Amino acid sequence: MSVPLKFYNTLTRQKTVFEPIDPDNVRMYVCGPTVYDYAHIGNARPAIVFDVLYRLLRHVYGADHVTYARNITDVDDKINARALRDHPGLPLNEAIRQVTEKTETQYHQDIAALGCLPPNVEPRATDNIPQMIEIIETLIARNHAYVAQGEVLFDTKSMQDYGQLSKRPLDEQQAGARIAVDAHKKNPGDFVLWKLSSENEPGWESPWGRGRPGWHIECSAMSQRYLGEVFDIHGGGLDLIFPHHENEIAQSRCAHGTQVMANLWMHNGFVQVEGRKMSKSDGNFITINELLATKTFGGRSWPGEVLRLAMLMTHYREPIDFSVKRLEEAERLLAKWPAAEPGKAEPCPIVMEALADDLNTVAAVQRLHALAQEANGDSSIIPMFAASAALLGVLPKKAEIDEAVASAVDALVAMRLEMLKAKNFAEADKIRNELGEKGIQLKDGKDPATGERVTTWEMKR
Ligand SMILES: Nc1ncnc2c1ncn2[C@@H]1O[C@H](COP(=O)(O)OP(=O)(O)OP(=O)(O)O)[C@@H](O)[C@H]1O
Ligand SMILES: [Zn+2]
């Protein structure tokens, strides 16, 4: 590896060199969506940011030496509420399945359109209930959890250094929050690991009765199952630092008796609208699907790669104020980039250096743009450009052409060759120009055997 990777670690508040536990299997966990509604473009940001990180790690350690796990949260009270609202006639389990399956499929379609590679594992919470129960049992056995009023709660005071990630002293956990302290909790910051379900709520049998897990425990269970007790990178949006990630850490470390859950904690900044976090609860959101497939935003639809580039033109830890202007800017850049397929070439060291420096996609995009301009004048640069663009996942693809169009172009190219033979240069140039306006580029050469002129063509974009 030529350039050392350095990342900002929320846990230490420092940018340090990344040293994987096992370079043959670099392990990353990112908290995925709660599947009850279309994902908004704020939710697209972690998908894109951690996809770039995944691509970078695959490049450095080898594609087969990185394991990326991103979960699907398919048990949540918001899902129940949506299932009851949308499918009042169906049995609850069936209604929930309809909601989660539909949302999950939509999510996959949306982020595939944004150029995100599928993770290596994408576990669902409901497929990991026994693993969650096991961790909760261990926590109770080790006096880190207790049962009260049908709930199993994590005892935050039982962990000496609770709060390291968010740096909130325990006594201040809820100061000022004006949340009535539930009488059954030992400490106001104690959180639910398991709660009982009524008959019309989804539930699983457990040592504490038929119930369902709290939100945080699922990520502790799934990350352990797929990545181990201690792994390399844990990611998500800034809003997850507290309470979600803090509580994941508490559960995993106390259950396994480890010093850390993950070595490196990375958090992306918010996509904002008029200075406020875009959020479902505030109603100030636009879904990925609306942006890609409708005219809701700026009176037109936008290609996925434009949205992706627009996101990467800001550093992942900075907030993004989302606007039409930003999308237009990204689109203008992309239009100037040559279409290419990713090949075996090495990426440009300057792009690598930028990404190795805490994923500086802003500098990487600037360099990529300069490279694109060079490549437009010198096609020998295209393979390096393509390899660099592929690291960011923003490689303009050669446009697909249907057969009817292709044979019409072939016919025009043949006609032009006839014109050239007949020295009718004006007509020949006219055909070349007309095709050029449609984005079809002609290349003249000679057949090495016969010495005759041959012309090939390609779609620029
Ligand atoms: N505006 C945003 N900008 C950047 N990341 C976000 C934003 N909103 C949510 N995320 C991230 O998206 C991922 C999916 O989270 P989740 O499904 O919990 O979001 P959410 O609950 O829809 O947010 P909200 O309900 O507040 O709109 C998380 O990593 C979360 O941090
Ligand atoms: Zn999580």
Largest sheet: 4 strands, parallel
Straight-line N-to-C gap: 34 Å
How many domain units? Answer: 4
Q: Architecture of the largest domain, according to CATH?
A: 3-Layer(aba) Sandwich
Which outline best applies?
Answer: elongated
Structural class determined from secondary elements: alpha/beta
Going across the biggest sheet, name each strand in turn.
4-3-9-10
Q: What's the assembly state of these chains?
A: single chain
**CATH class categorisation of the largest domain:** Alpha Beta
Order of helices and strands: EEEHEHHHEEEEHEHEEEHHEHHHHHHEE
Give the helix tally: 14
Instruction: Name the bound molecules.
Output: adenosine-5'-triphosphate, zinc ion
Helical amount: 40-55%
Fourth-level CATH superfamily of the largest domain: HUPs
- Output the CATH topology of the largest domain: Rossmann fold
Overall average pLDDT: 93
The low-confidence runs, each spanning 5 or more residues with pLDDT under 50, are none
Rg estimate, integer Å: 27 Å
Describe the structure.
The protein has helices at 41-61, 77-86, 92-113, 129-141, 215-227, 241-256, 288-293, 304-312, 324-335, 349-356, 361-377, 382-392, 403-421, 425-437, and strands spanning 6-9, 14-17, 26-30, 66-70, 145-148, 151-154, 191-196, 211-213, 231-237, 262-268, 271-273, 276-277, 320-321, 440-446, 453-459. Helix 4 packs across helix 6 (241-256) and helix 11 packs antiparallel against helix 12 (382-392). A hairpin with a 6-residue loop joins strand 14 (440-446) and strand 15. 41% of the residues lie in helices and 15% in strands. The chain has 461 residues and is α/β, with parallel strands linked by helices. The chain has 14 helices and 15 strands. The strands form five sheets. It has a four-stranded parallel β-sheet, sandwiched between helices. It has four domains: 6-268, 3-Layer(aba) Sandwich (Rossmann fold), CATH 3.40.50; 271-335, no CATH class; 349-392, no CATH class; 403-459, no CATH class. The chain starts with 5 loop residues before the first strand and ends with a strand. It binds adenosine-5'-triphosphate and zinc ion (ZN). Zinc ion binds at residues 31, 219, 244, 248.
